[in-house]
């Protein structure tokens, strides 16, 4: 067996990376792909960091919101109670006068003043009494306790009011307990 020796012409150089310029093989001699991967990994890490920070911020927001809501619930009636303290002071003064005085007319007048102040204070806060007597029975506003014979004129109407109903800022907070005619 004889070996055949292949020789290149004298002016041609041997190119080891001859296939480097063939399309699809540029990765063999081009380290840019590694740079792209590193850049994408850095972007992923940056997005993860942003996500974790946003999640932590949202979690803090939820906790802060729950705490504020709890404080609001605990102090919701504070304004009403503060306005009722004046009425309480009047009640204390009236109680003291009841113990010291035997004049019934003065006592009645003092108690009536306290009641009127209580009503006006609550009305200033948006409380309004519901008018029910001699109106049509309405299941949206009234709670029927009983029915009584009342004749044709009062049939289906509220004859008596056991407990008043109330609105707070035009929203029903207590239904009126009524007696209905049949």
Number of strands: 6
The CATH superfamily of the domain at 128-182 bears the name: Head domain of nucleotide exchange factor GrpE
Q: Could you say which overall geometry the principal axes of the C-alpha atoms support?
A: elongated
Uncertain regions spanning at least 5 consecutive residues:
none
Main sheet: strands, sense, barrel? 3 strands, antiparallel
Order of helices and strands: HHHEEEEEE
Round the Cα radius of gyration to an integer and report it: 44 Å
Overall average residue pLDDT: 84
CATH architecture of the domain at 128-182: Roll
CATH class of the domain at 128-182: Mainly Beta
Helix content: 40-55%
Strand content is 15-25%
Q: At the third CATH level, what is the topology name of the domain at 128-182?
A: Nucleotide Exchange Factor Grpe, Chain A, domain 2
Widest sheet, order of strands? 1-4-5
Structural class: alpha+beta
Structure annotation, total helices:
3
Ends: how far apart?
129 Å
Please give a structural write-up.
This protein has 182 residues and is of the alpha+beta class. Among the domains are: 47 residues; 55 residues, Head domain of nucleotide exchange factor GrpE (Nucleotide Exchange Factor Grpe, Chain A, domain 2), CATH 2.30.22. The protein contains 3 helices and 6 strands, in the order αααββββββ. The strands form 2 sheets. It has a 3-stranded antiparallel β-sheet. A 3-stranded mixed β-sheet has the order 2-6-3, with no helix packed on it. A hairpin with a 2-residue loop joins β4 and β5. α2 packs antiparallel against α3. The longest helix is centred in the N-terminal third of the chain and has 43 residues. The radius of gyration is 44 Å and the shape is elongated. The model has no long low-confidence stretch (mean pLDDT 84).
């Amino acid at each position: 067996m004889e070996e055949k020796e292949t020789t290149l012409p004298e002016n041609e150089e041997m190119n080891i990376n001859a296939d480097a310029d063939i399309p699809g093989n540029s990765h063999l001699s081009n380290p840019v792909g590694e740079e792209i991967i590193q850049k994408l990994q850095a972007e992923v890490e940056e997005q993860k960091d942003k996500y974790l920070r946003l999640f932590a911020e949202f979690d803090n927001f939820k906790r802060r919101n729950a705490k504020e809501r709890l404080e609001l619930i605990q102090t919701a009636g504070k304004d009403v109670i503060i306005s009722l303290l004046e009425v309480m002071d009047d009640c204390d003064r009236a109680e003291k006068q009841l113990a010291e005085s035997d004049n019934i007319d003065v006592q009645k007048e003092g108690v009536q003043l306290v009641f009127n102040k209580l009503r006006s204070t609550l009305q200033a806060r948006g409380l309004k009494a519901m008018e029910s007597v001699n109106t049509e029975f309405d299941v949206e506003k009234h709670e029927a306790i009983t029915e009584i014979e009342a004749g044709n004129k009062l049939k289906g109407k509220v004859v008596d009011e056991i407990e008043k109903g109330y609105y707070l800022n035009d929203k029903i907070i207590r239904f009126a307990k009524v007696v209905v005619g049949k």
